[in-house]
Prior knowledge:
- The protein is mainly alpha-helical.
- The protein is about 85% helix and about 0% strand.
Amino acid sequence: MRKFTLSLLLLLLAFYAGFAQCTSAYSSASYALAHTKRALNADNFDHQMLYADRGVAAMEKAKVLIEDCGCQPALNEIVNGLDNLSKATDPEDWKAGRFYTQIALEHMQLVMGALDRCTTGAPEIETTSDLTASADTTTEYLAVNNTDLSDEQARLEAEKRRLEEQQRLLEEKIAQQRAMAERAKMAREQELEEQLVIKRAAEVHLAAMEESLKDLAESLGCQKAMALLNGSYMRSDDVLNNENLKETRNYYIQQTIRMQRDVAAALESCKKP
Length: 273
């Protein structure tokens, strides 16, 4: 009788120890399930991968506890869930990440059901067909999306070549514009040199003509004509930057005509009756 009581006590202790471990596993698995749901509901790629990574860490902890509590159906499911969610931590794209997260979520829901049965002693439910269906779906997804990825890669390569061609044409255009600007600069510098030559020569000759006219006006006693000869045609070199060669030439032609015309008019007014 004592042996029977002791055996019963040990059996009850083992049962409650397993029950406690499965309860802890259930709590840890719930945490992993929550992160998996967050990964699936994430509104951007980075958050999806972040929550998937946290879900993987939580699943790994739950897996150890499930092993300790001896709930084999839950262990089978969490292994498959962990495998799929791990693929969602660094997927090809957001679409692939959501696909693997969805499968992981289905496995985690089965984990929770299995842990419920392990803690309550309910009979095991066969899930082999579900796992086979998930595996078939994964294979189908990869087959279809490998083609999609190839098409996408070809499109991106074509877009890359188009952008490279645009860049090449833009660089050629920039080079042509720089060459044109350099030629224009050299032409302007050459024109400015010619303007300076005309300015200096014209002002020398105008100064000589002015002195001759002063001597003439003085000899004729025409003070009015002498007052007009004041070097007003002289100007700084800087003004040439604001005009072209033709305008510089026309300026000194006009100054020559003006000086002769004004002096002639003054001399005319100096005639005595």
